[in-house]
TrEMBL record:
It comes from the Eukaryota. This is DPH-type MB domain-containing protein. One of its GO terms (molecular function) is ATPase activator activity. Keywords: Iron, Metal-binding, Zinc. Residues 63-120 form the DPH-type MB domain.
Length: 121
């Protein structure tokens, strides 16, 4: 009777505990593992996207127009040359840059277009 009780006690106290233990471990670790995989995939994808975008910019700069500095409007207040983009934005190039460079690629301040400006007419 005592042994039987002891056996039951041992079985009931050990059994479920062990079962929980076994059940918990793989479920928990697989969740963590899955989350980690998704996270690392997103990170990898983002890094890949950024790298690819940087490469595209380098390889084929989307130059919309080639103009001369004369075509641009001088802004006395900003000490910069301005040129209207077709999107309604503006290409702005500082006076210093026009003095240092023979030609320069200027990005629109609103869209992704850019123009190549030749300083010498
Ligand atoms: Zn634009």
């Amino acid at each position: 009777m005592l042994l039987e009780q002891a056996g039951i006690i041992t079985r009931t106290s050990r059994g479920p505990a062990a079962a929980v233990e076994v059940e918990r471990a793989p479920r928990g670790s697989s969740k963590v593992d899955q989350a980690w995989k998704i996270l690392s995939n997103q990170e990898t994808k983002r890094a890949y996207d950024l790298q690819r975008r940087a490469q595209e910019l380098k390889q084929s700069w989307p130059v919309d127009a080639h103009i001369c500095l004369d075509d641009m409007d001088w802004d006395d207040g900003e000490q910069a040359y301005r040129y209207g983009c077709r999107c309604g934005g503006e290409f702005v190039i500082g006076k210093e840059e026009t003095e240092e460079e023979e030609e320069s690629v200027v990005c629109c301040d609103t869209c992704s277009l850019s123009i190549e400006v030749k300083m010498a007419a």
